Amino acid sequence: AMPALQKSRIVALSTTIHENTQIVDSYLAENGLPSPSFDISTPPDLSLPSDIAKAKEAILEAIDELQTLMLGPMGKIFHEYAHTPTNLTSMHAIAKFKMANSFPPNETTTVAKLAKSAGMNEGDCKRVVRHVLSHHLFLEPSPGAIRHSAMTQAIAVVSLLREWMEDTSENMWSSAPRIVSAMEKWLGLDEPTQSAYNLAHRAASPGMQTSWILDNYSWDKYRSVVDVGGSHGVVAAELGQKHPSLKCTVQDLPEVISAVKTDVPNVEFQTYDFFTPQPVKDADLYLFRMIFHNWGDKYCIDILRNLIPALKPKSQIMINDHVIPEPKILSAYKDKNVKTFNLIIEACFNAKETDINDWTQLLKEADERFAIAEVKRPEGNQLQVIDVEWKG
Ligand SMILES: C[S@@+](CC[C@H](N)C(=O)[O-])C[C@H]1O[C@@H](n2cnc3c(N)ncnc32)[C@H](O)[C@@H]1O
């Protein structure tokens, strides 16, 4: 018998792209949504139901691998991998000079006019515009005419996006060139280079939604919850609203608590430094959402030990944070995001992302009575939940 013809990897990938693109396309057509383009008719964010989002993920994963294979080893390094710093330079300029905000979405401008309203040197402006045009930020419908693309419009409309771009370029990536020197110089040291850096706005980014923990816990069985480092009450506000009988306390540093604007129903805000003993005794649940990843091990241990005097037998501790998945669980495409974040937090805080073995070790080192009851990995969410029970 003839051996079955084996599809090569690149053809298998192109088939994945083809089939899943059809799924996404039919969904958009059936729901009267615009087909993605660079035009400003494309909204800043397209939310898809989970089965369609899965097809989209499959496309992106396959494209990523196919692109790497087609570039080849040297091509990948020269023409893709090494380009990141240049992208950051133009991202910095776009955000800093508010270039996307300097003319309205429906108008056409020129480099000269854009430079003037953004307060830039014309030559610099031209170089930045040329670079970002190659990434579909701005469009050039005819030579010299500059219009908004879907991307620059998103930057203009979503002010948090522009702020995030500026913040990332200035505060995070500015330390990138020094990470390797630091690795060389301070082998394994735990000190944060910067503490209490408020990343609360990241809570809104895709994959970090609060909805999973809100919807998948029987909150009604608790009477009191303390959200340690709870910022402006991202989680507590919703808890207080949905479960009025629950007593919610949000704790954070004075500068964060004093900026809490509105009166949030059923939520009490309290100034507290988590490197000092926990003042709220005997709560049913202590929540730590995106707290530990900012700190090196010895600081995490300190935070945990400061909780002990407040705990009663069977107190619950919920850790909602990044847990590095076991090798091979994520696709290379998703893994890139996780590992990038890992380098960012090393750059900013000298902290590390931890896998489940590291978490187990860390809790044990803090105190043998911290017992992991369950680890949950909500689908489509970058944050996992580690349920810990106090065996005191
Ligand atoms: C990444 S944010 C997480 C905020 C919130 N838990 C969430 O899930 O969106 C870290 C929070 O820890 C707070 N924080 C930093 N150092 C602290 C300290 N020593 N005591 C209490 N809170 C602190 C920060 O102000 C910030 O609100």
UniProtKB/TrEMBL annotation:
Pfam families: Methyltransf_2. GO terms for molecular function: O-methyltransferase activity. Keywords: Methyltransferase, S-adenosyl-L-methionine, Signal, Transferase. Residues 205-366 form the O-methyltransferase C-terminal domain. InterPro entries: COMT-like, COMT_C, SAM-dependent_MTases_sf. PANTHER family: PUTATIVE (AFU_ORTHOLOGUE AFUA_4G14580)-RELATED, STERIGMATOCYSTIN 8-O-METHYLTRANSFERASE. This is S-adenosyl-L-methionine-dependent methyltransferase. It comes from Lophiotrema nucula. The lineage of its organism: Eukaryota, Fungi, Dikarya, Ascomycota, Pezizomycotina.
